[in-house]
Design goal:
By secondary structure, the chain is α/β, with parallel strands linked by helices. The chain has 8 helices and 10 strands. The strands form 2 sheets. It has a 6-stranded mixed β-sheet with strand order 6-7-8-3-9-10, sandwiched between helices. It starts with a strand and ends with a helix. Bound molecules: adenosine-5'-diphosphate (2 copies). The site of one adenosine-5'-diphosphate has 8 residues, from helix 3.
Amino acid sequence: EPLVRLRNVTKTYPAARGRNEVRAVDDVDLDIAAGDIQAIVGYSGAGKSTLVRLLNGLEPATSGSIQVGGTELVGLRERQLRPIRLGIGMIFQQFNLFESRTVWGNLAYPLQIAGVAKAEQQRRISELLHFVGLPDKAHTYPRNLSGGQKQRVGIARALTTNPSLLLADEATSALDPETTHEVLRLLKRVNEEFGTTIVAITHEMEVVRELADHVAVMENGRVVESGAVYDVFSSP
Ligand code: ADP
Ligand code: ADP
């Protein structure tokens, strides 16, 4: 039983202001096993971000079936999606940290929303800051961090609620090669030490090679190729 199971998933955006209807995701089937690192690659406009927004229930699918941890997301109401989203972490290209909060405040936020008791919040935040190598940055504001440090905070924040699934949307695209390498190593450790399943959107082949076990190639909303990284990249 895969952790993520997509069947015939289609997402269309309605026609607007002289634009035709867009079929952003077109009849996609995809299985992602628990504990796997799955890369989604493809050119700009291929449908990668839409696919990830479907996975965390930020956009409703037009048709098809999306199961995460055995729960069908398609057709759920906002109120029913909320607890499922707590089990799904997200990290972003531009980090999306709250600039007006310290690192500690950024990590505390999802725990407050989840209603976690204060003592448990402190234990968890302290543990995660050590895990990402920033134990002395608790009271620092994001503007005083480097890009790599910001993404470490982003990763720590995504892990606060112990998600089984971590979605990464171009998480290293704003970073230089050396910092990219450090962040990818950290994501590998997340996968190995916590067993977190990772779905990583990227347009960088180096990221796929260094990070992923499996890769799906998207073109015009469709998955045109999918399999183990080694097989997909060694095929003619
Ligand atoms: P990628 O992440 O691979 O660049 P996207 O999922 O962002 O691709 O976009 C896929 C297609 O859907 C593109 O044609 C894009 O213009 C369109 N699209 C994405 N989001 C919206 C939206 N909110 N409204 C209308 N069209 C959209
Ligand atoms: P914000 O700027 O978002 O308010 P703060 O750094 O001021 O974030 O901290 C928010 C809450 O977390 C405060 O109630 C504070 O007591 C607690 N807190 C912050 N840092 C620590 C820490 N290192 N150890 C224990 N509690 C902390």
